[in-house]
Amino acid sequence: MNEITDRGPQPPTRRAFLGASAALGLAGPGLARPSLELLREAQSGTSAEGGPPALVVVYLRGGADMLNMLIPRREATYALARPGIGIGEEQGRIALDDDWALHPALAPLAPLYKEGLLAPIVNVGSPHTTRSHFDAQDFMEFAAPGNRSVRSGWLNRYLELTSRERAKRRRKGPAETEFRALGMQGLLPRSLRGDYPVLAVPGDAGSKESNAALNRFEKFYGAGGQAAGQETGMDGRSEEGDEGGSAVVKSGKVTIETLRRLQEILGAGEQVDYGFPSSGFGRGLARIGQVLASGEGLEVAGIDIGGWDHHANQGGTDGRHAQMLGDLAQSMAAFALQQSGRLDRTALLVMSEFGRTVNENGSDGTDHGHGGGMLLLGGGVRGGHVLGEWRGLRSDQLYQGRDLPVTTDFRDVFAEVLRSLFDFKTPKDFFPDYRPGRLDLFS
Amino acid sequence: MSPLTENLAMRLGRPQRAEGAPLSERERAVHVLARLAFGHRPGDVDRLVAGGVDKWLGDQLSEKLAGPQHLVEKLDGLASLGLSPLECEEYVYRPTPTNPTGQERRTRERARRLPMRELVEAVGLRAIYSDRQADEVLCDFWRNHLNVSFTKGWPSNIYIPDYERTVLRANLHRTFGEMLAASAKHPAMLHYLDNHLSRRPPSDQELAVIERAVRRETGSKERGSEAAAIAAQRGLNENYARELMELHTLGVDRSYRQKDVIAAAAALTGWGIDRGRQSFSFKQDRHIEGDKKFLGYPLRKDREKGTGQGDRIVEILSGHDHTAEFIATKLVRFLVSDNPPRRVVGEVERAFKKKGSRLPDLAWAVIEHGEFWSRDNYRSKFKTPFEFVVSALRATDAKIDSLDRIDSVLKDMGQPVYRCDDPTGYYDTAEAWLDPGVMSLRWKFALELSAGELFGVSVGRNFYYGLEEDPNPLRWIDFLVERILPAGAAPRTYLMLFEAIREHTSGGRRAELSVLGPQIVGLLLGSPEFQQQ
Known about the structure:
Chain A is of the alpha/beta class. Chain A has 11 helices and 11 strands. In chain A, the strands form 2 sheets. In chain A, strands 7-6-8-1-9-10-5-11 form an 8-stranded mixed beta sheet, sandwiched between helices.
């Protein structure tokens, strides 16, 4: 019993969903063919759920190779630079328009693009030139390139600032939901670290073993209110002292309460199979979606996919990279379907610390580059276009003759997402040393 | 009154200690085993009380070779541990054809990962089993202070085992300056913080040579100027120079400015790696020569040749007053409290500044200060995941056949050995580890360990030795609390244990040691008290 098994939605209900969606004209093998119209229609129906606008940030750790995700069709250099791993027309790349094509493994994203729900952003990145993973990730997730004194994530800063303001306005009234923000993984991504308390959901939350543990320790940690905090400690000191760990008890209490509630949310409602893959990411994103749909008040969620540092054996249409892209795309398409009721208020942003070299290297892979790309999915997104400023692939158009240049500061994207989605105007020092650039991401 | 509540009343009636009362000898033993060891093993507390806590400390902090035979044997089985980087590279080398099959690639990858797996295993085994516990605890401190990480990728796999041995362990009883100097020239650090890439920017003359060569080779003028443009970008890499000051010595933004970072980076140019010998080499052609000024000290060209200027910088930094303060604060935070008491820090600073003082002297300065022993600092520090897991394995006297599962548990908890991406190393304060949610992973580990569900790890039957004879489960509780929480459990914890007995024996069932015993142990390992040190 060493393997942690954790099953997502079960097949029988998939049939039920297919039946229901057939009525909506949504059916078909692969089922991920959401149309904007149908999504809107669905929104007026029963699946429309409450809750505030929400942002899901997906971080591809390792420096994802954007150039093999969104392929420039008119650049002759592309095929020359990537004789081994390049994705040509004959490799089945999926044309979005005259200029751009998707990697075939990203096929589930094509309908979303065509429906105007998905916008790829090209040549996004950091003004800092580091090619170190941890620096680039720190700089990006703290949204402070080159500035090492900032140690809180940009999303956490947003949560903290707005939480303080809301508290001022609210005074009395219900406390803020514990589910306002979460990381769907055991340790928070850096973008969510900081003063604002964010729940880190362990991968096995909701599993039999995890529930057993919660049940076992519930009374220890005083969830439910009686046991802890009302006794004196063993040395006659109040439990508020350090010994016996009042902070530990408190953290344990929150752990139990929130994971319990999470478990209820995950168990509640119809178990519909939206087509999420059974990968760790697929399951995690499905769970985020369930919490969003529950109306619990989730605003910001983060989840990582590791392993994008493809120095070797990256592969073209099949291989590691293609597999990972398939997982990403299927999960995103399933998420769009799952969120159809509230997609107008939802955005999913995919990012990575940097792009990779234009040229493939000698070992069927690519090395650390500079400019990268992002994917933005959502009902309000100015989708169906490739956004950002593309420069080209000729060596004189590249950064240091080898990498995509950065034409959009990633903070432009962050600022715009916070502004359009949450109506939050970033105060002056929110991004240190930042000169705002303008980028219209939302329609 | 039911027997259970009567029992509780009896326990609550135990003499209680007033706030501020000095620690008893038994509490002192528990305290040092928590702070200068990774927790107690069965019998440790009694042994320390019998032999004297001070004597134990004296033994631990003196330089002696030791290690129980079974640990030595286990470590002997890890063949890559004692190898130099070059030997290690040869050891893991697998010839691969130009177009390797998936199988061949996997074999190669497995071989390359071997040194990492073995080192991680060795660090764990030593922390759990070594009798030289203070060495292990302090090694953990320096490992995080001078962090390097396998996440940097190849060839860190072949560098870091040697780093642990020759930089950390070899210098545990020497001076800070010696350890710092060793780290500065080790391939693991040179690679991790990119100093091996740092070089003098090419001169115009050299750029012209590059341009001409490429132009001639490719026949393209454009390619030539492109190559020159790329070459011109190569130059100083400030990464190591900055972290050397910010993280290893002075502390962030203390007493240095950007010009000092640049001066240090310039002085350290040429400090690189000879990839043929996989060892430090000074590359004169990459070195920026000339006079420099660093923190107000002149570095003269004529006096310091070769690595001289860099050596001088390391020396200046390791003897700097701010370094003394920075290291002292960090060590006191590690050994005493998340809010380091000012007076203890001052004491350690003084010890640091004493000429020729060795690293154990710093630990002595902490221990000799009364505040280390104050009740406020007793069982008041949250264990990091590593400390929690290791102390649980020690308290239960767990038998370990493989540490793979423990490694993945630590990965889930966010603290796998030698895989901290961030050059800061892992933090050791509660703030860094108490995210809401993390406790559930500790509870699961506690239950799985005690129930024998962790692959490769088991708690032996003899851990419960003698209890089979005793039909009264209340006495099992006493015995097991004594083993897991020798400083005593909170009333709340006893209530939980009683409830477990009540549940287990409901309907008049007889208590089964093989079922109830592990349950009690699991609850104790997951209790709030066991999360603290």
